[in-house]
Amino acid sequence: TAVVLFLGQRSVFNVDAAQRCNLINHMSAFATTYAGETEKLNHAGLSSYSRVDDPAYLQIIASQLRWLRANSLVSDIYTIRRSAEGKTLIVVDSETDYDNSGSIDQDREHRTEPGEEYSGFTAKDQAKALSEALAGSPAFIADPYQDRWGRWVTALHPIHDANGNVEAVLGVDFPAVVWGQQIFNAR
Q1: N or C: which end of the chain has fewer CB within 10 A?
Q2: Residue 175: is its pLDDT beyond 90?
Q3: According to the per-residue pLDDT averaged within each range, which of 5-14, 87-96, 100-109, 129-138 is highest?
Q4: Structural element, H or E, at residue 150
Q5: Sign of the Cα pseudo-torsion (127, 128, 134, 137, in order)
């Protein structure tokens, strides 16, 4: 019995690890692809404090919404940039219909305004992932974290300007509860 339990536990551990790896690869590929799309839409030309009626801003919002509809596992897509003072600012954030009601009807479903400071990446591993992405390396926050909108795991990918310099970071959020359910389902 002990051997069967040991082998069963080891098998579950291996399945969990494999599914985590698959999910990280899926989310990272999504972030990489969409970061390239965002670069093509000239994200670098947006101010950190863009007006919400700016046609370039609206074009990126429309693109984000198309990408969200194409991947039901992703809850949020947003871009962030560091200010000269070192603050992490939201540049573009999509509205998300979290409750699937067909409308944006809750406070947490409303878009964050350009230039709003984001303080969600405060833990050491989250800050490290953000710094890596700002330095040009894709990163992933696999340990679920909480912010005012919910509990997430996040893929971060650098966005480059026309000269190849990192000008912002694309964030793709995956709800922690869905993340856990996907791992559980793989068992």
Answers
A1: N
A2: no
A3: 129-138
A4: strand 150-160
A5: negative
- Least Cα distance to 41 among 81, 79, 12 occurs for 79
Structure tokens at 142: 């696999």
Would the CA dihedral through 46, 76, 66, 19 be positive or negative? positive
Nearest alpha-carbon partner for 74 in 120, 28, 38 = 28
Please tell me the distance from the alpha carbon of residue 160 to that of residue 133, in angstroms, as a whole number.
Answer: 11
Nearest to 140 by CA among 171, 184, 118, 167: 171
| 153-157: average pLDDT | 91
Token digits of residue 49: 């404090």
Q: Are strands 150-160 and 88-93 parallel, antiparallel or unpaired?
A: unpaired
Q: Which tokens sit at 182?
A: 């996907």
Let me know the angle formed at the C-alpha of 69 by 28 and 169, rounded to the nearest 5 degrees: 40
- CA distance linking residue 143 with residue 165, whole number of Å: 29
- Determine if residue 85 is left, alpha or beta; phi over 0 gives left, psi from -120 to 50 gives alpha, anything else beta: alpha
Model confidence at 119: pLDDT above 80: no
The pLDDT-based confidence of 2 (bands split at 50, 70, 90) is: low
